[in-house]
Amino acid sequence: MKNHLTSESVCCGHPDKLCDYIADSILDACLSSDAYSRVACEVMATKG
After folding, report:
1. Would you give the DSSP letter of residue 36?
2. Which of 3, 5, 34, 41 has the most CB atoms less than 10 A away?
3. Over the stretch 9-37, which tens digit does the pLDDT of each residue have?
4. H-type helices in 1-48, by residue range?
5. d(CA 8, CA 10)
6. Cα–Cα dist 29/12, whole Å
7. How far is 20 from 17, CA to CA, in rounded Å?
């Protein structure tokens, strides 16, 4: 069985970086109040 690995590299200021930061902040906040919490977080950014 072959495995295919992929990766993505984006520069600072890219919407993916912002979305990752927001999702990580939400996860950190949930885990700080309850270490056993389960979190599923999707973040989407568009220009307005």
Report:
1. T
2. 41
3. 778 778 888 899 999 999 999 999 999 99
4. 15-33
5. 7
6. 23
7. 5
